[in-house]
Design brief:
Elements (H helix, E strand, L loop, with lengths): L1 E7 L4 E8 L4 E5 L5 H11 L2 E6 L5 H4 L2 H7 L4 E4 L22 E2 L5 E4 L2 E7 L8 E5 L2 E5 L2 E2 L2 E2 L9 H12 L6 E4 L5 E2 H7 L1 H6 L5
Parallel strand pairs: 3-4, 4-5, 5-6, 10-13
Antiparallel strand pairs: 1-2, 2-3, 7-8, 8-9, 9-10, 11-12, 13-14
């Protein structure tokens, strides 16, 4: 398993390319902008893109989807149904722009070569926010950041819900690489020790 990260767009959204190198397959996670750069990064490794996966529907995570859909018609595009029309924003109503959009939710799994992608519904930043769990990696979107968490003051956001989602992530057994939607990557154990929002959600003091 190989993971590439590319900050894209005006606010540096993390787009991830997840690859099963042996199978020659890839998934593009949160293509927020700059479709040509993303395509070039995929072509560099010669992988076939099987999926375009979205952690939520905000425009800064989805802007490149229509262009990628045209360039990669074989790639299956998934988003949580609650965010299919832009997560409450009229800026990017994805469902009306992408033919054949698919929906995933809590408990669903996708297979890509030898990899299993598990879907955890983690609302709070938006109603349809998900975390994608693949091996020891968590693609958290804007739910969990290094040292912080996603904002909850946008349409569909809820501090109570994001606290529940953070508690769920914090209680996962073992350690994971945390791949957030913005800023640097981290580990779940590091966040358990030092992230004030995750610690609040888990009922820890200090």
């Amino acid at each position: 398993m190989k993971v590439k990260v590319m900050p894209v767009g005006p606010i540096g959204t993390n787009c991830y390319i997840l690859e099963d190198e042996e199978a020659g397959l890839a998934a593009i996670i949160d293509p927020g902008d700059e479709a040509e750069r993303i395509l070039a990064a995929v072509e560099e490794d010669g992988s076939t893109v099987e999926y375009i996966l979205l952690t939520h529907g905000h425009y800064d995570h989805t802007t490149a989807v229509p262009a990628l859909h045209k360039a990669l018609p074989q790639a299956k595009i998934y988003i949580h149904r609650a965010d299919a029309n832009g997560a409450g924003s009229s800026l990017f109503p994805l469902a009306s722009q992408v033919e054949g959009l698919r929906y995933y939710g809590e408990g669903d799994t996708l297979t890509m070569g030898a990899l299993t992608i598990q879907v955890l519904h983690t609302p709070g930043h938006s109603k349809g926010s998900v975390t994608l769990k693949v091996g020891d990696v968590l693609f958290c979107g804007d739910t969990l950041f290094a040292g912080s968490c996603g904002r909850t003051d946008l349409a569909g956001g809820s501090y109570e819900e994001i606290m529940g989602s953070l508690k769920r992530l914090g209680r996962l057994e073992g350690d994971f690489h945390v791949c957030p939607g913005h800023d640097i990557t981290s580990t779940l154990e590091r966040e358990r020790q030092s992230n004030p929002f995750l610690r609040e959600a888990m009922g820890m003091r200090g």
